[in-house]
Amino acid sequence: MTRRYSAFGLFREGLRGHTGWHPAWRSPMPKASYDAVIVGGGGQGLATAYYLAKNHGMTDVAVIEKGWLGGGNTGRNTTTIRSNYFYPESVALYDFALKLYEGLSRELNYNIMLSQRGVLTVAHSEGEMEMAARLVNAMQINGTDAELLDRTGVLSRAPLLNDTDEARYPIFGGTFQGRAGVARHDAVAWGYARAADRFGVDIIQGCEVTGFIVEGGRCAGVETTMGPIRAGSVALAVAGHSSVLAAKAGFDLPMRSYSLQAMVSEPVKPCLDTVVLYQGTGTYLFQSDKGEIVVGGGLDRVPSYAQRGNPPMQQTVISGLLEMFPAFAQLKMMRQWAGIVDVVPDSSPIIGPSPLPGLYLNCGWGTGGFKSIPAGGWLTAHLVATGEHHDISRPFDLDRFRTGRLVDEAAGSGIAH
Amino acid sequence: MQLFPCPFCGSRDETEFHFGGEAGKVRPEPAGETDATRWSRYLHVNANPKGATSEIWVHDTCGEFFLMERDTVSHAVTGSKSLRAEER
After folding, report:
1. CA distance A306 to chain B (A)
2. pTM of the full structure
3. Three-state DSSP class for A214?
4. Which end of chain B has fewer CB atoms < 10 Å from its terminal CB, N or C?
C-alpha cells in the first residue's frame, strides 16, 4: 500500500503494475453529529478543515459538498496567485496566502505545481505610470516584492506584446511581482482533501445543505439531503451561493453574484513565461504547462447564477487579447466556461461571525478566492476553533459595512471588481 | 447576444443596458434619524436571489430607468415596465 507520494513510490508502483494505489480520501456516510461542519468542498472549505485538524487539533469535522470537490470556482478560476494589493490589511492577507502556497506541495505531500513566473501589469500612459509607482511603493512598504518596470523591462519579459506605433494601448511600463504565479487548481483542492482525510476529517460529496438547525438562537447544525447533521460550529465557504444559504439562515449579505468567465486556446509552443494583465483592455493571460493560452477578463455585467459566460464579455476579452498579442489571432479557442463569484462593495473578503451565533462566514472573495485559499482556510479555522478573530482576519469582519471601515481594493489597487 | 426589452424602445442588445440595483429598496428617511445599521443595510445589503428577481435597469441609449423581471439562473426575461408614474 503506497500512502506517501514520492518519486521512489512511483517507481516501485511502476514495477508492481500500479496495484498499490488506493483512493486519496474516504467517502464516508455522514455521522449524526460533529464538532464542526464546513459547508462547501472547494479549496476554502477543504483548507479550513485541514487547518482545523492541523493547527487546532479538531478532527471531528465534516466537509459537506453538494456537487464534487473543487467543482465550483476552485475548478473554474485561472489559477493565478499574487499579492499585489494596495492596503496593508490586504497585503497581510494575500501575502500570507502566497507564503503558505510556497511551502504547500511539501506540507501536503501533493504536487500543486506552483510556478512562480511573476505577474506583469502593463501601464499605458504617464498617469498610469504614476499610479503604478504608487502601488509598487505601497507593496514594498507593506513588505512584499514589487518592481516598477520601464517599457524595455516590460518588452523583455513579454516580447510578443503589441509595441507598434498603431497600438491602441501603448506600453509605457508596468508593475511586476516576481513571487506571484500560477498553480494547478484541482491539485490544491485534492491535496487539502487528502491531507484533511488523513487527520480523520469526513469529506461528504453529493450532499446538499437545505437549511440550518437553530436552537436557542444558535446554529446547532445543518439540514441536508442526507438528513440532519448536528454541529458545535458551522462554517460557510460557498462563494457565489453565500446569499442563498444566508437566506436559509435568516440574514442577508452585502453581496451580488456574477458570472466570471475564462477561456483556453489549443496548446502551442512556449511563447509566454509570465502572467500578463493590461490595464487598458482588462484582459489577462498566461500560458499553461500544457501550452494552452489561458485568458480571462472582467465580470459579466448581469447579476447571475448561471455558471456560463455571456457573449458580449467574451468578445471584449478576445478583442483585448488581440490588441495585446496580435500574433494570437491565429489561436483557436478550445473551451470557455464561467463560475459564479460573490462580489462585495469593497472587493475584499468577508471572514468572521455571521449574524447567527455558531455560524461563521468565509465569502466575498469575488474574483480572488483561489489565490487566498491557504490563508482563508487558516483564518476561518482559527475563527471556528477559538471563536475569535486572527489579527489578519479582523479587518475583514462583516461589521465593516456598518462602521464604514471598508478595505476598498477596487479604488486601492485598481482591480476591476 | 441576449435582447433585453426596453419599455420605450423595444428589444435591444444587452450591451445597451446597465444594471441599476434590486427593485423595492427605499431610502431611509429622515437622514437624521437613520442609524448606521439601517443606512448600511440600504447602501450595501441585497437579497441577491437565485431564480426570479425584480431589478431596476437603465437603457443607456435612451436614458430611461425601468423595472425588469428576470430569472438569474435561466436569464429569461419575463417582464419589463416603465417606472414613470403616468405610464403605470
Report:
1. 5
2. 0.95
3. strand
4. C
